[in-house]
Design goal:
Blueprint lengths: L9 E7 L5 H10 L6 E7 L6 H8 L6 E3 L7 H11 L4 E5 L4 E2 L4 H10 L5 E7 L6 H10 L18 E5 H6 L9 H11 L4 E10 L6 H19 L5 H21 L6 H27 L2
Parallel strand pairs: 1-2, 1-4, 2-3, 6-8
Antiparallel strand pairs: 4-7, 5-8, 6-7
Length: about 290
C-alpha cells in the first residue's frame, strides 16, 4: 500500500488573480508535501500575468481549472461552486499566493480532522519579508498562540489556508452576500456545534501591502457583511476609542522595534481601517433596511 492510498482524499481548491511570482512557489511547495492524496481544483478570476499559465503547468486535469470574469468573483459563491464540483471528503482551501513553508504543512493542517479532534482548521500565516511594518505586527498579533486557548478558534477564521470536512459544507454553505464570507461561515458552523482549531505549526507565508484605496475597499466590504448579518448599529465613539487605543499600541511597537519612521504611515493605516469598517457597517444596515 502506498502512502497516498492510505490517506483520505482531499480536494485542494486554489483561488487566483494575478498572484505571480508567488504561485510558482506555492506549487513547488505542494509538490514536496508528505500528504500526497490530494486533487487540485483551480479557479482564476481574470489573471493578466502568468498565473494561469503556471496553474495549467501544474494542474494535470484541465477540467479542474475554471476561469471566471473578474466581475463575477464573489468569494462565497466561488467557493460554493468549486466545492460542489469536487467529490473528495476533505476540503482544503489555499490561496494561490499563500506559500506553505515546510513539506508537512498539509499533513499538519489535516491532523486534527483525521484524529476526530475538529471539523475544521486553519494554518498560521506569517507576513512576507517585504511587508510593511504595521502589516507584520498585525499578522504577528492575529496568529499569536495566546489568542487561541487550547487551539480553539473564537471569532476568527481565514479561508486563505484552511481545511474542513465536506459534511459541514453540505450542512452550511458559504455566505454569498459579500465579503468576510469565511468568518461568517465559521461562526454559523460553530453555532451548530462544529469545532474549529488553529494549527500553529502548519504555516504559510501570506500578506499584502495594499494601497490605501485597496485597504479601504477591503475593510469596507467586511463591514458591509458584518452590518448585514448582525444588524448591529455601529458606535462612532466606540470605534474612535478602539482606533485610538490601537494607534497608541502601534506607536509603542514602532518605537520598541526602532522603527519610528513608520509611525506616520501606521497612523494613517489604522485610521483608515476603522473608518472603512465603520462606514461599511452603516452601509450594511442601510441595505438591510431597504430590502
Amino acid at each position: 500500500m502506498t502512502l497516498a492510498s492510505s490517506q483520505p482524499a482531499v480536494a485542494l481548491i486554489m483561488r487566483s488573480k494575478n498572484e505571480m511570482p508567488y504561485t510558482r512557489d506555492v506549487f513547488e511547495a505542494l509538490e514536496r508535501q508528505t500528504y500526497r492524496n490530494y486533487v487540485l481544483y483551480n479557479v482564476d478570476s481574470g489573471s493578466t500575468d502568468d498565473t494561469l499559465k503556471v496553474v495549467r503547468q501544474h494542474n494535470p486535469n484541465p477540467a479542474n481549472i475554471v476561469e471566471i470574469a473578474p466581475e463575477d468573483y464573489v468569494p462565497g459563491k466561488v467557493l460554493n461552486m468549486m466545492i460542489k464540483a469536487a467529490h473528495e471528503p476533505l476540503i482544503v482551501l489555499l490561496n494561490a499566493d499563500a506559500i506553505p513553508l515546510d513539506d508537512q504543512w498539509l499533513e499538519k493542517l489535516l491532523e486534527p480532522l483525521l484524529q476526530g479532534a475538529a471539523d475544521g482548521a486553519i494554518s498560521r500565516q506569517v507576513a512576507r519579508s517585504d511587508a510593511h511594518f504595521i502589516v507584520k505586527e498585525d499578522y504577528s498579533r492575529a496568529y499569536a498562540m495566546e489568542r487561541f486557548p487550547n487551539g480553539v478558534l473564537v471569532n476568527f477564521f481565514s479561508a486563505v489556508a484552511c481545511a474542513f470536512r465536506r459534511e459541514i459544507w453540505d450542512e452550511t454553505k458559504f455566505y454569498t452576500g459579500g465579503y468576510a464570507e469565511d468568518l461568517a461561515w465559521c461562526q454559523e458552523c460553530q453555532a451548530k456545534g462544529r469545532r474549529f482549531v488553529f494549527v500553529a505549526d502548519s504555516v504559510v507565508e501570506h500578506s499584502h501591502n495594499y494601497t490605501l484605496k485597496g485597504l479601504y475597499r477591503k475593510r469596507f466590504r467586511q463591514g458591509v457583511t458584518f452590518g448585514t448579518i448582525s444588524g448591529m448599529a455601529p458606535s462612532a465613539l466606540g470605534r474612535l476609542y478602539q482606533a485610538g487605543k490601537e494607534m497608541l499600541r502601534d506607536t509603542y511597537c514602532a518605537i520598541k522595534h526602532c522603527a519610528p519612521q513608520t509611525i506616520p504611515y501606521n497612523i494613517i493605516y489604522r485610521s483608515l481601517i476603522h473608518l472603512a469598517y465603520y462606514q461599511g457597517i452603516k452601509e450594511g444596515l442601510r441595505r438591510t433596511k431597504n430590502k
